[in-house]
Design a protein that fits this description.
155 residues, mainly alpha
Length: 155
């Protein structure tokens, strides 16, 4: 099996996990019977808006080089400026912010378990992606030493 095919398997797993977070959040909201806390609801809306803005900004800045497959395209360039000087994988961070926003919006606190599973999977996917990037770009390992992986200023 080629690296690209393995990468697409990781993409499918990623989307299944993201769908699980979304569907369980809606299901939990609908059937939990919990009283909603407006503050948590508005924090969720704020996270969703921040995530949507970040997603748009990253998509515009990376443009045609963006792919969900962890194997970089042949014409990919290594970006280390802008948001990429703060975090190596801003799109994964954005996905996590959006999902956390959805969970808070629906106040589906049991769905945090799915978010944790998705986070662990994304860390694994990032590890695979970084193997490919290190092979493609000789300066990638130096870049890794100076920039956080997925959560700006933290991890």
């Amino acid at each position: 099996m080629t690296d690209k095919a393995k990468g697409w398997i990781l993409v499918i797993i990623q989307f299944v996990l993201l769908t699980a977070v979304l569907l369980t959040s809606v299901y939990e909201f609908k059937y939990s019977g919990r009283a909603l806390m407006p503050v948590v609801h508005y924090i969720g809306v704020t996270f969703i808006l921040i995530g949507a803005l970040l997603f748009t900004f990253i998509l515009i800045s990376f443009g045609q080089y963006m792919t969900p497959n962890p194997v970089p395209r042949d014409n990919t360039i290594l970006r280390t400026t802008g948001i990429y000087s703060i975090v190596r994988h801003p799109m994964y961070f954005t996905v996590l912010v959006l999902l956390l926003g959805v969970i808070l919006y629906f106040q589906a606190f049991y769905s945090l378990i799915w978010l944790l599973i998705a986070f662990v999977f994304l860390v694994y996917k990032i590890s695979k992606e970084e193997e490919y990037l290190a092979k493609k770009f000789p300066g990638y390992n130096t870049y890794k030493k100076t920039t956080k992986r997925i959560i700006p200023f933290i991890y």
